Amino acid sequence: MLSLLGNAPPEIALLAFSGRPVLAFLLNMGAPVIAVAGTFKYQHPLEVLTYGGGKSPFPTFSGVKSVVIALGEYILAAAAAVNVALLAYDISSKAVYVPNCGRTWYAFLWMYLCLILHPLALVTFWSRVRITRSPEHGAWANNEIKHSASHRGISYALKEDTYLSIFLDWVLSHGAIVQIIFGTLVLSATTLIDTRDAFKIVGRFAASAILCRLILMYELYGLRAAVAAGTIHLAKERPEVE
Q1: Residue 50 near residue 17, CB atoms below 8 Å
Q2: Residue range 71-78: mean pLDDT, rounded
């Protein structure tokens, strides 16, 4: 269930490369179980920017309002990440993993496999998308404290698929499946959790995942608005190979 609420790797990578890598990292930590699209399904890394036919009305915020929105997102994403970390600690310290009672760190390992999958998602995105930044894009720190609808001066274009990009995409999708299977095994073999506690654990996990998902959707909606406004350029086709 948590994987259905998780964030897709291309979406998190797009947010990171658009100029908000810190927020992308916090969202990844707050919803550590990533969404699985399928082991052999081709994921268009820029498809999310074309939803709605490229038209995405979005309220424009600038100055103090933009900074306040960005800081609010950081506070909420950090709270979700802390919630997940506390849940991992509770499961590890207050429950017993039946196959090996001495190993209490399996819950941490399951949740924080995202620390491997997140960088892999970034590398996979970079291998498939050409990113060009103009001086108008500005410094990283400046973009980090503004919501995505305010970004400008960046261009995305699909690269030609290579054996490396296909392999990385395959490894990433299978890595997500491994995380889900491992998490199922860990939680199903964990005892001494009351039914009410189990509902609380799932509820807190789901709350963090939904919160992070909402923040990500808001930012991606802003990126689509920037594409529609022409401040972010999206190439329609792959570059031709001469």
Answers
A1: no
A2: 92
Enclosing H/E stretch for 166:
helix 163-188
Helices 195-229 and 64-94, interaxial angle, to 10°?
A: 150
Helix (H, G, I), strand (E, B) or coil at 24: helix
CA-based max dimension of the chain: 64
Nearest Cα neighbor of 111 from 25, 34, 198, 8 is 34
Q: What percent of the chain lies above the pLDDT cut of 70?
A: 77
Residues 232, 226 contacting (CB under 8 angstroms): yes
Query: Residue holding tokens 């190979």?
Result: 241
What pTM, to 2 d.p., does this model score?
Answer: 0.81
In this prediction, residue 83 carries a pLDDT of 92
pLDDT 10s digits, 88-100: 887 777 666 665 6
pLDDT: which is higher, 222 or 22: 22
Q: From CA 69, how far away is CA 74, in angstroms rounded?
A: 9
DSSP, collapsed to helix, strand or coil, labels residue 240 as coil
Q: At what angle do helices 21-30 and 64-94 cross, to 10 degrees?
A: 30
* pLDDT of 41 over the 70 cut: no
Identity of the residue numbered 68? V
The Cβ of residue 112 has, within 10 Å, a number of other Cβ atoms equal to 18
Q: What six digits make up the tokens of 202?
A: 């799932």
Q: What is the DSSP letter of 95?
A: S
Instruction: Identify the helix (H) or strand (E) that includes residue 199.
Output: helix 195-229
DSSP at 241:
P
